[in-house]
Structure formats: structure tokens, C-alpha cells
Amino acid sequence: MAAETTLSAKDMAAKAEHQDRLSELERDVDAPDPQQLKRIKMKVDLRICVVLGVLYTASLIDRVNLPNAYVAGMGTDLDLVGNAYSLLILVFFPFYICFQPPMTAIAKKLRPGRFLGTIVVAWGLVIVGHGLVKTWHAMLALRCLLGIFEACFFSSCAYLLSTWYVRGEVAKRNAAFYLLGSLIAGFGGILAYGLSKMDGVGGHAGWRWIFLIEGIITIAFGLIAYFLIVDFPEDAHKSFKFLQDDEIKIVIDRINRRCLDVETPPFKLGPYLANALDWKIWFFAANFGLTSVVTYAAAYFLPLVLREGLGFSEAAAQCLSTPCYVFGTILGLSESVLSDRIGLRTPFLLFNCVIEIIGVVVLGYAKPSGARYFGAFLIIGGAQSNIPLSLTYQANNIRGVWRRAFCSATIVGAGGIGGIIGSLTFRSQDAPQYRPGLYTCITAVCITFLSVCTTTTYFYVQNKKQSH
């Protein structure tokens, strides 16, 4: 398999043109000793990966707490009959998709700390509103607002991460940001179950306390994040000091030497939108979007499948998804560390696709409930692991600040489209087998497999040409 540290032929030519400049830059910069570099990366990890991971945890819990609230009685209180529940899930995504493309550029202009901290507080207020509505139509409007605010978040985070690390360091950080957030969010079912036991406190139903408490926690996180999130490397001196000037220079210079794209040219709308002509960007988006079909389907419907399809109790249905996410986190982190070590992404992406397919088959066709539950482990483990690998795969093959920004927004927008598909795949009338949803997941995984093979083969051929 081709190593995903490769670049396209056009990018390789651009790299050659800049070689003289880079050689001069390398001579001017004092290489840091390993211990100093290790200290710098530790500081960056704590202020970026940890903080963004905590916020992403809040994002995931807030985005997918609907099934837990539904199981806890929201469906009855709000009279969610027919397709009302699916509609509440669905309306989030058009707004999430449409507001993606400009967000990385806006974050760049406004500085990430101020931008991300503010929108986290905003969507926390929206989640509190979820717990106060009297009709599901009012919640429908709040789901639209939530889609707008969360559109600002993920692509900006993915872009911010890609600007602080060289290519060989990205997979572990993407995994830490996404998988650790997913792991903690996987305990959201247990948290929701506990909060639902506040039924009657303050005159509110238990499902309302799920939204109220989780929204308040999100607001608190956003206020803290306003002061903790750092800016891009070239603007780090504007943030609350966490690196010295010489340390910032080391970060910028080593990324310049390895990636060629820390220096930011002026933003121009035409060249920015022209990145849409690069077919590879759409294949990267397909990888992420189709994987998101599976992750969203699991997040929104696994508690319902466990209860209605496998016959588990309400408490078990809310809590049994957590072990699946623990497995996904362990698998994804292990693969990401090994992926960075050997410089390959493709074998891991394809392996995860295979175990997803096995998981879908087991969940759909096995007879014992325990065996079908094991299938859920494989589905969630493979899909969760492929999300950060898909992000790393595209980041390793994209050069240029605004091109990278466009690609980050595009793949996260594709993730929103995946969310729309995932929100429609498992229907109550298909219980207990849920065959249409399972077929959709298998199709998404197979197309992802073919997409990764196509782009990897292209990079392999182009690198062969460059080497001759």
C-alpha cells in the first residue's frame, strides 16, 4: 500500500520549486534538542488535543442524546408519532452541512479561542432549551439552531489540529481528539439514565433533566474554553501565553520545513472555491461521509435496536452502548499509534471496513441476542476507528493553508450528509431485524473501501512517476 505521507504530482512539483528556500530556512533555524521538542509538543497536546477533546465530548453528547431522552419518556410527552422522531434527527443536518464551508475561514479570521468558545456557549443554551419545550415542533426549531452552531465546531477543530503538527504526528492527535471524546460520550447513555431518575424534581420530567443538566455543563465548558483554546501557530503570540516566543518559532519552522504550508497567503474567494475542482477532495469527503453514515446510525438508533430488536430493558438499552465505544476507542488509538509509526493509513482503513461488514452481517443474521450485540461491537469499533484515520488520510495528502481549510470543511459537510442518511436508515417498522438499515451500512462501507483503494493507487502511481 502507498504511504499516505505522499503528495500528488502537482504538489510534488511545488515542493521541488520551494526546495532552495527550505534549505536556506533549515540553515537559519536551530534544531531543538529532543527534550525541548518533547516539552513543546506536550504543551501543545494539553492545550489543543485535551481541550478540544473535552468540547467534542460535549458536542457528541448534546448531538446524540435524543435516543436516550426518547427511551426515558420524551416520545410520549411530546407525542412523537409517525416520523416525528426521525424528523427531529434529520433537520439538524441540512443546517450543519450548509454552514460548514465558510466556517474554517471565519475561524481563521476571528481567532479560534474566541470563535469556538462562543459557539460552544451558544449551543449549550440551545440544549437547555430542548429541556424546556412544550411541543416537538418547538424542539424542531432548536434542532435547526443546533445544526448551525455545531457546523462551526468540528471542521474548525480538525483544521486547527492540522496546523500545529507535522504529518507523522497527525494520526495520534486526531485519534486522541475524536476517540477520547467518543469514549467519554459513550458513557452518555449511563449519564442520561442517571439524570432521567430526577423525574419529578422541580416539576420536570426525567428526560427534560437530561437536556437541562447536559446543556448547563456545555455552557460551563464553553466559558472555560474561551480562555484556553489557542490560536494558529503564526498567531499563537496573541493567545494567552502558553509557549515562549522561541518555542512558537520552533513549531512554525519545523512545520514549514515538513509541510510547506504554515505561512498563510491572503484569502481570496475564487482560488478558495477552485479547490472544488480537485477530484481527490471529493473522494476524501466520501470516505468521511460514508463512515459517518455508520457512526450516526449507531449513535441515534443503537439504544432503540437494543431495546426493540434485541429485547433488552430500558436501563440496559441506555447503558449497553458504552462498552462498544470503549472497544472502538481502544482499537482506534492502537491503530493510530501504529499508523503514525509505520507511515501508512490505507491498511488500517481497509481492515476497519472489513470488520464493519462482518459486524453488520452478525447483527443482522445471527440468532442469539448476545451474538448480535457482539456485531454492534464490530460495527462501532470499525466505524469509530475510521473517522480519525479518514481525517488523517486527507490531511497527509493536502498542501496549502486555504486548500486544507476547504478540504476540512468539505469532509465535515460530507459527514453531515452521512448523518442525514444514517438518521433515516433504521425505522421502527423494520424492527426487529432492521434489514434496510443494515443494507445501507454495508453499502456505505463497501464504497468507502473502493474509494480508499482508488486514491491510494493514484498516489502510488504518481509517486512512481516522480521517482523516475
From TrEMBL:
One of its GO terms (molecular function) is transmembrane transporter activity. The chain crosses the membrane at residues 44-61, 81-99, 115-133, 145-166, 175-195, 207-229, 281-303, 315-334, 346-366, 372-393, 405-425, 437-461. It comes from the Eukaryota. Residues 12-28 have a biased composition (Basic and acidic residues). It is a multi-pass membrane protein. InterPro entries: MFS, MFS_trans_sf. Pfam families: MFS_1. Keywords: Membrane, Transmembrane, Transmembrane helix, Transport. GO terms for cellular component: membrane. Residues 1-28 are annotated as: Disordered. It is found in: Membrane. PANTHER family: MAJOR FACILITATOR SUPERFAMILY (MFS) PROFILE DOMAIN-CONTAINING PROTEIN-RELATED, PERMEASE-RELATED. This is Retrograde regulation protein 2. It comes from Exophiala viscosa.
